């Protein structure tokens, strides 16, 4: 049992923790879908940063496109189903690892790892009028051959298909990347004008050579409904700024030299600005629907907090790790967004889509000139569907593991663990466990443990990232 002074310290610590997250509202009942919205058709296209490569379980067996329903495209549709009561159908999920811009329309039956052009795949879903209300996509990384650029920067050879082949080889020393920033920048400039470095002369769209902006405009004008929106999603910086690294890293992060990660960061920022520029240029060419840009460069580094590799915070990307939960040791998972990274991206995408298809009402004439404009964001669905017993103040008892890729946070008074627990309703992604013993012998690799306590809060982020907060009175280690 916890003593009263310890319990008071725990409550105070928990209150401080929740106050620091004041922007996360307590779960509220879901809104009903707008009466006139009807079915929302959705196409989730793109490359490995859209397919879910990097999420545990992808890329095995017949899953040659490395697709996951937790990838940001289908996940954002799920958020709007659960939070706003939308009916999303059909949902065409065509994103494929390794895809280039040419493979959206072309490449024949061998494109997209044998699945054929992504637009042809989408048409098999037969949306009304061959148009979609929502199209999400990320393209361009493979066209500038960013994967090979990364391989050329690794402080170890990656000319192998398995992790064993990689880790058993000797490091190559302190040689810098074999591609310079200027080279990458020129590839990005060519991408804007419609030239792919990896597939020269193939073209992005139909009816002649198109610039990247013209490709976006063609997709919107030919494949969106009148109310629809094209959401272009960018690429993040992979590595946190080097001044945020721990000194123990000795100038290296995931087999990358500090100077090389800085160059790659510059390249990522240049690519982000280039994609943003193409979207802005496309906006002036679009006569049907709208276009939005979601910057993962900004999204993974918000309010001065880095979530890139070696940031010392929860990382939204996989590094060169052999610790994937699915046990596949799939090399291609490295340097891709993990499940949390896709969740964060999905929240942002869902917000852009909701603001376009179901915008907030205009302020009334009687409203004060100083009043803030009304906003309507996806809100938490009710704790229903057989889970009505999940209420603040109820007892909690479950077997839990530390959620990958997070680690426990310790203060002088308590330990906080972000966990995945059995029997938790699927609308909650994690359980935040607060326990008044900072010396509890828990690491990210600790197995299943029994957690008992009280549900202290049900929280969610702006777009529906929901978490159960538990004040634990007992934790039994394996």
Automatic annotation (TrEMBL):
Residues forming the catalytic site: 48 (nucleophile), 336
Signal peptide: 1-32
Domain of life, per lineage: Bacteria
Annotated segments matching region Disordered: 354-386
InterPro entries assigned to the protein according to its UniProt record, in alphabetical order: SEST-like, SGNH_hydro_sf, TAT_signal
Gene Ontology BP term (one): lipid metabolic process
Keywords assigned by UniProt, alphabetized: Disulfide bond, Signal
Disulfide feature: 65-96, 253-310
Positions with biased composition (Low complexity): 364-382
Keyword Transcription carried by entry: no
GO molecular function, one term: hydrolase activity, acting on ester bonds
Protein name according to UniProt: GDSL-like lipase/acylhydrolase family protein
């Amino acid at each position: 049992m916890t003593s009263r002074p310890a319990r008071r310290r725990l409550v105070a610590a928990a209150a401080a923790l929740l106050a620091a997250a004041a922007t996360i509202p307590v779960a509220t009942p879901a809104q009903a879908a707008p009466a006139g919205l009807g079915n929302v058709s959705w196409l989730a296209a793109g490359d490995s940063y859209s397919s879910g490569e990097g999420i545990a379980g992808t890329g095995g067996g017949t899953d040659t496109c490395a697709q996951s329903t937790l990838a940001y495209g289908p996940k954002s549709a799920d958020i709007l189903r659960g939070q706003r009561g939308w009916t999303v159908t059909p949902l065409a999920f065509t994103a494929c690892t390794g895809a280039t811009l040419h493979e959206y329309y072309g490449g024949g039956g061998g494109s997209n790892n044998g699945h054929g052009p992504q637009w042809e795949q989408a048409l098999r879903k037969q949306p009304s009028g061959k148009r979609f209300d929502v199209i999400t996509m990320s393209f361009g990384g493979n066209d500038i051959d960013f994967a090979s650029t990364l391989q050329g920067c690794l402080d170890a050879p990656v000319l192998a298909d398995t992790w064993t082949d990689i880790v058993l080889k000797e490091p190559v020393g302190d040689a810098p990347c074999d591609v310079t920033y200027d080279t990458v920048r020129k590839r990005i400039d060519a991408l804007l004008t419609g030239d792919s470095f990896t597939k020269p002369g193939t073209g992005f769209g139909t009816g002649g050579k198109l610039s990247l902006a013209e490709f976006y405009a063609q997709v919107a004008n030919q494949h969106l409904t009148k109310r629809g929106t094209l959401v272009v999603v960018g690429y993040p910086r992979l590595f946190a700024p080097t001044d945020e690294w721990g000194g123990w890293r000795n100038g290296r992060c995931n087999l990358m030299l500090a100077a090389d990660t800085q160059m790659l960061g510059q390249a990522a920022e240049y690519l982000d600005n280039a994609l943003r520029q193409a979207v802005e240029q496309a906006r002036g060419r679009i006569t049907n629907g709208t276009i939005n840009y979601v910057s993962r460069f900004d999204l993974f580094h918000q309010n001065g907090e880095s979530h890139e590799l070696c940031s010392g915070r929860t990382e939204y990307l996989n590094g060169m790790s052999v610790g994937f939960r699915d046990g596949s040791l799939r090399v291609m998972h490295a340097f891709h967004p993990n499940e949390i990274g896709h969740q964060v991206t999905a929240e942002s995408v869902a917000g852009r889509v909701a603001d376009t298809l179901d915008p907030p009402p205009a302020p009334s004439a009687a409203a004060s000139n100083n009043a803030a404009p009304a906003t309507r964001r996806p809100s938490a669905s009710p704790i229903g569907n057989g889970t009505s017993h999940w209420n603040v103040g109820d007892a909690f008892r479950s077997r839990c593991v530390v959620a990958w890729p997070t680690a426990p946070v310790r203060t002088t008074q308590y330990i906080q663990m972000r966990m995945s627990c059995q029997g938790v309703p699927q609308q909650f992604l994690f359980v935040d466990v607060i326990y008044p013993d900072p010396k509890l012998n828990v690491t990210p690799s600790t197995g299943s443990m029994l957690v008992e306590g009280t549900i202290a809060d049900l929280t969610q982020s702006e777009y529906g990232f929901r978490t159960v907060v538990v004040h634990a009175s007992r934790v039994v280690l394996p």
